[in-house]
Amino acid sequence: MRKNQLLYILFALSLLSILGFSYVSELSERVPITTCRQWGFYSSKGEKYYTHPEKIVVKPWDGQHNVYGIFMIPDRYRNDILFTVTIDKTEVHCGVFQSPVTTDEGINAKPGYYVIKGFLNTRVALGVILEGKGHQLKQSQNWRVGYVNKE
Q: Hey, where are the domains in the chain?
């Protein structure tokens, strides 16, 4: 009888160890929250322009990569590496871009433009929503990307 109890205890400890290790390794592999750093924004001798997204999707409950904006940039220009989302005019969060945008998004580039998709970290979006400011995530004027002439 004691032999069976010892086996159950060892089995339970092994299972807990494996589950604990997998949880810790998953935490260490998560993408860190993107911080707003100066290197993520181009400076230009000429004028810098800004645009807001053509489409915004805010569905963090559907998992990662479900909070994003789709921006349209003129062909002769390069966009910043990061974009900003401003909440309450003071709280600024940064996101990163992924290209190209698939046509299933329902946004096609106008002639002379290209389309890019910028992702906001899901944890950041959930934090904003839990603060009761989720409606601000859906307002395009709060999302902004800069772009400069390529020359």
A: 1-30, 38-149
Angle at 70 between CA 101 and CA 144, to 5 degrees: 140
Backbone conformation region of residue 89, classed left if phi is above 0, alpha if psi is from -120 to 50, else beta: left
Enter the pTM of the model: 0.71
Specify the pLDDT at position 11. Answer: 80
- Strand, helix or coil for residue 40: helix
Q: Which pLDDT tens digit goes with each residue over 133-147?
A: 999 999 999 999 999
Contact predicate 121/96, CB 8 Å: no
Residues 55/70, Cβ–Cβ less than 8 Å: yes
What tokens were used for 124? 């950041």
User: Rounded CA gap, 85 and 53, in Å?
Assistant: 11
Strand partners for 70:
55, 117
**What six digits make up the tokens of 151?**
């020359």
Contact predicate 137/56, CB 8 Å: yes
39 half-sphere exposure, CB direction, 13 A CA radius: 2
Query: Which burial class, exposed, middle or buried, applies to 72 when counting CB atoms under 10 A from its CB (0-12, 13-18, 19+)?
Result: buried
